[in-house]
Amino acid sequence: MQNSPRGRPRSSDIDRLALEHALGLLEERGYDGLRMKDVAKSAGIGLGALYRRWAGKKELVMAALRADMAQHEEVESGDPLADLDAALERIADAVPNGLGRLIAACLSQPDSELARVAREAKLIPMVDRLTARLEKVIGPVPDARQRAESGLSYLIWSAAIAREDGGAHSLRDQVLGIMGVSSLQAGAAGRVVTGRRAERGHL
Hints:
The model is unreliable at 189-203 (pLDDT under 50). The chain is mostly helical. It is 72% helix and 0% strand. It has helices at 11-29, 36-43, 47-53, 57-71, 80-94, 99-108, 113-138, 144-162, 168-178, 183-199. Helix 6 packs across helix 7 (113-138) and helix 9 packs across helix 10.
């Protein structure tokens, strides 16, 4: 958790600081332990400024989760299959870093406020984006959303619970197979994503 800046932030910085610190405190304390006044104190923002922007904790957390998704959304490369593969990779990487706890809340307490927030701000938009990317690969088939949901469910389960030992490439191939992407297409996507990671110095 980063330290609060000295003095009051400029008005243009308030939204960014509030969302960053809300997300940090959510990961640190959980939804039940998160309080608006703690976000304000951590970010060096007046409590009134928070309430002028968000009606309460639910709205603030939803905004923080949506901002986090937008921040990690990569620009399309022009290769729909490689973009789908990269999106799945980002989701798998996020499971140990906060996404897993949101999923756990949805499963263990499906009627809780956190579960409702997670579904609306994170999971439904995630499925929407995966469906759109999948349709660019296999076309607008009637069950595209169901395929995206099935692939996402298996990916999260494998990353959070099963902890598959077959490696990232094996899991990726399984998820793409569930989504209806052929093994030949999946192999081509894997080579493109591996090249991207090498260019970014990840390999």
